[in-house]
Amino acid sequence: FLAKRAQWAGAFMARAARMAARDRNHACIVAWSLGNESGCGPNLRSCYLALKHQLDPSRPVQYEQCGAQGYTDVICPMYPSVNETRRLCDPGLQVRPWRNYPGADRPSPPLRPVILCEYSHAMGNSSGNLHKYWELFRR
Description:
two-stranded parallel sheet, single chain, mainly alpha, 32% helix, 139 residues
């Protein structure tokens, strides 16, 4: 993945800096995203640290693939089951975030909010359990 390739470090950091400079005064920006599906690695960790400590420390940063690693402020899985979602929302169980996340074998980070960045994808007639997610959300 590009997040691990040193030759891409400058491009990653430039993107994060441009994003923060361009969007930091927009009231609708409530969190920064490190991107989508670029793997995990030092390039994203550097972007996280720059956003949190230099570019805009006022907002949380999220990245789906970081999982239990320390460079996301939000647990934001893609397509977890309803049962996985329920476990993530239980503070007693969140200490071992989503089992498929990188870093799940490390000591637990502080509890973090859970936002399902993607949880339903309908192709044809494939969203039959959507109501189960919403029953859980309303609890």
